[in-house]
Amino acid sequence: MTNPILPKAQSHIAETSRQPSREWYEFFRKLLQFIQESGADPGVIASILARLDELEQEDNFFVINGLMSIDVSGTPEAGVVQIKLDGDIESPGTSYYYGTNAAGVKSFYRVRDAEIDHLPSSTYSTIQEFVNTMHSPGTIDGPTPVIMESGIPATPIRVLAGKGMIRTADDDVSSMPFFNWAQTDFAQASDGLTRFYGVVYNAGSPVVQQRTTYNWDKDTEIPLGSAVIFPSGVAVVTANPYKTGDPITNIIQRFDAQSPAIRDNSIGGLLLGETGIRNNTLTAGRIWSRLSDYDSLAKNSSTTPMLSAFFNGTGLTVASGLTQWDNTRYNNVGAGTLVAMGANKYANLWYFISIDGTKWGWAYGTNEYNTLGAAANEGVPVYLNTNFFQQALLLGRLIFQQGAATASLIESAFNSVFTTAAINNHNDLSGLQGGAVGEYYHLTAAQYAALGNPLQFATAMHIASMRP
Length: 468
Hints:
Blueprint: H1 22-37, H2 42-56, E1 70-75, E2 80-85, E3 96-100, E4 106-110, H3 127-134, E5 138-139, E6 147-149, E7 157-159, E8 162-165, E9 178-181, E10 184-186, E11 194-200, E12 207-211, E13 221-229, E14 235-239, H4 247-258, E15 262-263, E16 272-275, E17 279-282, E18 285-289, E19 292-296, E20 299-300, E21 306-311, E22 316-322, E23 329-332, E24 337-340, E25 346-354, E26 360-364, H5 372-376, E27 392-401, E28 409-412, H6 445-449, H7 454-465
Parallel strand pairs: 21-26
Antiparallel strand pairs: 1-2, 3-4, 5-8, 6-7, 7-10, 8-9, 11-12, 11-13, 13-14, 15-18, 16-17, 17-20, 18-19, 21-22, 23-24, 25-26, 25-27, 27-28
């Protein structure tokens, strides 16, 4: 049986004379023979024969139609057909795309001019305008530090090469191209005066400059740091570039460096209190950690039980389900145990809340004290380490006397500084000289000794009043 084989892909179906090419004619002939030998339906064979007759007709031709963005010129019968994109450009350049502009005209356009979603009345609409208005000029990356001592006596200060974005004008919306600057060495006198270093746009050819005043506009001029060289030859170089690259990461790092979590002070709240017999309360508030915020509902330990924590010698022991604060124990850190307080002693409970605002409670203080003032000198327990405060926010503390049903003092972490010491020494106080009520005065040792001799006392007081 004859096996018809398709012609090669480059073979033309029709010649310029509008006759079928030899390769395709042979293919159709063999295809017909194949069908005849296979015993196909006579109607199918008749249809194929009719198509072959059409191909052999002198006036037969075909048409190529361009659809959508395709333009067609020429005709098959003329022997030449050209196909191209509507609005095509021979050499559009780099970073161009084929599409439509704001008027819907098809062609190649710069990627920077591509539009993003905007309302019809919007002034800004393109990718480049988004960059110009939503980012900031500054350094992106480069060596650390960017300014250093060069080791060259004639030019002792070196600014290393770097990269950044800079505006073409001192405003908030002008174009902001990427740029690089070259390493530059500077002479600087040993006069103890500070010089400031930065990179400037310089009409599109950025250069590093040295100035005697800090007056960079931070749009077309990007500060990099400063240096001072004293007459002794000692140099102090401060690399402090105006870095805006990867801004969200740098912002989060700055927040983490200041505190893993803080209270939202615009809302306030998260204030510790008590109610009933040794029940704690907490007002509603909001906690920020990095760029996430967590709302905390108001709490009452009688319905929202608390946690307690103490140092057991190696780590924290945490208990849950507590509705009342403990008025009998403190944490002996050295022994790693909770110890019963002595009669009339004072101790601290340090309160915290989880960053998501769901769990709260106290950590035991680390000693017992004879007075309320002495207890107020205690700082936040050192066993509440950095890892603990990666997960919790300090709320404040409660100072209590052994066995008491209510607190002696409740302090909020948001308006108290717990690292400062309370004043327990009378001599540390001021404003005690005299007073209409009770008329208390400080006496010198000589005045006190002379109290038994009125004349001697009067003489001592007179001499004291004459002292400058």
